[in-house]
Amino acid sequence: NVFYSDFDGSGYIKNYCGVSQPGKDIEGNTKINQDAIVFLTNINNIKDFNIFGVLDGHGPAGHFVSKYISNYIPTQLINHPEIKKLKNPEKIYKKFKENNCKIITDAFVSSDEVLKNVDFDVLQSGTTCCLIIHIGKHILCANTGDSRALVTFDESNNKNSKKLNNLQAVALSIDYKPELPEESKRIMMSGGVIEKIRDEYGQGVGPFRVWAGEEDYPGLAMSRSIGDLRGKTVGIIPNPGILEYDLNKTTKFIIACSDGVFEYLTNEKVKDLGKKFYIENNASDYCHKLIKLAFDQWLKNDTFVDDITAVVAFF
Q: What 8-state DSSP symbol labels residue 240?
């Protein structure tokens, strides 16, 4: 799946791309890709009002959940009556910011409600959702689950220079894992248990997961998600963390990826790989190279390969 476009250069975004590749199971067969991409540009015919991001489904019907929510949440945001009537990016941004970003949080939280009416399994299937809402010079990153967004900037760089001598990367999202203090407190207060899966010797292996007491569900390796309705009984919540960033002349690109990218690649590696492609204004090759690098690392380090998705916007 590839979605990309060259902008005309008159707005903040110069170029963007999204690429998603299905993983492989332990037999080496290609899996159903449970990741989904969002890329909406010039929303409501407003320049510099764009939404992009990545969703990573999991469970038996994870591909249905991620696809459904990739349409549902952006639609809730852009068709919200308070947003739809506005034409000025600054006013749209201020409206989104009102009451602790209530419009955005409501779109995520209501997802669980609408999923109660679908005809696929959402008891033990769900999705992450990492959305970048770009309005004028403002970025709002709304994230639930463990997909991740990074923003890169180079304060040593002037616009005439072809080099990125001091490119820095900062996370725009929090990976919501159950072992985070605030998350574990909520889960345990809801009666959940946080433990690793045990091997035949009783040793904990893999990531910490959320369980309902002695039950063998939900076994989620994240503390927030959309769907996973059985997990909602033990403190899994759909509420997004929302972080903010203002674009400036040092900003280079923003990238959002499923954890298939970050399992074996550091933020630094993802950032450094982008330098050459940013200078060439080639978002498509950046995404393809990043996906291939992540894929090769999975083949080297594991018995299966996760679905791998990256979306990038060059500024």
A: P
